[in-house]
TrEMBL record:
Pfam families in the cross-refs: Response_reg, Trans_reg_C
Domain of life according to the entry: Bacteria
Protein name: DNA-binding response regulator
MF-aspect GO terms: DNA binding
4-aspartylphosphate modified-residue sites: D53
Domain OmpR/PhoB-type per the UniProt entry, residue ranges: 138-236
Keywords for this protein: DNA-binding, Phosphoprotein, Transcription, Transcription regulation, Two-component regulatory system
Signal sequence range: none
Binding region for DNA: 138-236
Domain Response regulatory: 2-118
Amino acid sequence: MKILMVEDDISVSQMMELFFKKEGWEQVSAYDGEEAVEIFKNHPHDFDIITLDLNLPKKDGIQVAREIRRISETVPIIMLTARDSESDQVLGLGIGADDYVTKPFSPIALIARIKALHRRVLLEDKPRTLPKNIPSNDFDLETNHIRISKSRREVYFDDTRVEGLTPKEFDLLYTMAQKPKQVFSREQLLELVWGYEYFGEERTVDAHIKKLRQKLKKSGPQIIQTVWGVGYKFDDSQVKA
């Protein structure tokens, strides 16, 4: 695996390079935002994952993530942030990061997150069809085109499995698919999926919906619709078979 580590703290970058070498991985280092964008622009297909610090000189992590996403919509990004703030995490996810790790972090924990994200990406690149030995009544919920098993945490769009759903993305889809065409406000989704109020952090819903849509798009037409000024709804009734 080849990792682009964007980190202005040289000691942290050098420490992680030692850990990555033990895993047999190659690290390329960038110490400011402009350097990171330039490296990726010149070698957009070289990297399996990017770890991206939020606080960077010249261009911050948010700017870098936006520019990287204009070059590649798929390269996995893990945001590293010293700010233990929900709004920063939501903003990072909203502009295209796939995961975040709050500083200070354990090198072993970061490696585990990288491995998990890389496995997820590999699965997304290889859509699986519905196994022949799973009966149709082995699903908890079926709509026109979606079948969901809660026990296996699996979702199928027609006969293609939707890969890489996080627990919250799965719960969001299941919640809305139970009541097709019903409009859910962000407040309702926070209460139903997260289980409590987020007190103003409604953007976390938008960030997770965005990622859910990206994963559903790989299997078929878009079935999560925005109802402007209200919230979101699930509707696959107009999808052609």
